[in-house]
Amino acid sequence: MTKVKVAPSILSADFSAMGEAVKKVEAAGADWIHCDVMDGSFVAPITFGGQMVKNIRKLTKLPLDVHLMIEHPQTQIKFFADAGADIITVHYEACKKISDGYLRETLQLIKSYGVKCGAVINPDTPAECIYDVIDLCDMVLIMSVFPGYGGQKFIPSALENVKKVREYAAKNGKNELEIEIDGGVTTGNAELIRQAGATVLVAGSAVFGADDMRAAIGYIRGEI
Ligand code: DX5
Ligand code: ZN
Fold this sequence. Notes:
- This protein has 224 residues and is of the alpha/beta class.
- It contains nine helices and eight strands.
- The chain has an eight-stranded parallel β-sheet.
- It is globular.
- The protein starts with a strand and ends with a helix.
- Bound molecules: D-xylitol-5-phosphate and zinc ion (ZN).
- Zinc ion binds next to strand 2.
C-alpha cells in the first residue's frame, strides 16, 4: 500500500486570497491540493472551474486533486486536464443518471489526457456499485459527508465502504489503488480512517481552521 497523504481542501480557504492559502498549506507539509468543483446543480453551491486550477497550477508543484461535483462531467474534463490537474475524480451518482456506461467512458476520457482518474461514491452508495470500474481507477474517493459543504460531521458508516473497496482491490491485484476519504476528517478520527485502508485523507476545516497547520497535517497523516 502507498504512503498516507493529506490533501487539504481549498474549499475551506479564503477565496479572495487563494494563492496565499495554497502556498501556506504547501509550506505546512500538505501532500496534495484538493480542489472541490461544484456546479450549482449536482450540489447546490457553485465554487470554481478550470481557470482556478490553471492559476493554482503556477503556484505549487504539489499534485492537484480535482473533485468534480458536477452533472455531465465529460463536458469539463478537457478544461481541467488542460489546466494541469494531476488527478480528476467523478461521481458515480452523476454518471449513473446519464447511462450505465457513462462512468467508464468518463474515466477513459480522463486517462486519454494522461491524467489519473478516480470514481467517487456518496455515503449512501454501496461500494459494490463501482467495483466494475476499479480496473480503470488510480483512486476511489469515498465521501464521508454528503457533498456540497465543508465543515460537516463525519459519517462513520463510510468506513465500511473504505474497507470493502480495500478488500476488493486486494483480491484483484490492485494493492496500489489509492482510497481517498473526504468529509469531516479531523485529527481525532484520522487514525480509524487510516486503519480502515484509506491512503489519502482530505481535510478542509481541520487544516484551514487549525492554529498550527503543520501539526494538524502531521496528526492526520499519523506522524504525531
Ligand atoms: C464536500 C467537499 C469536501 C470538503 C471537506 O463537498 O468535497 O472536500 O471541502 O471539508 P471538511 O474537511 O471541512 O469536511
Ligand atoms: Zn472534495
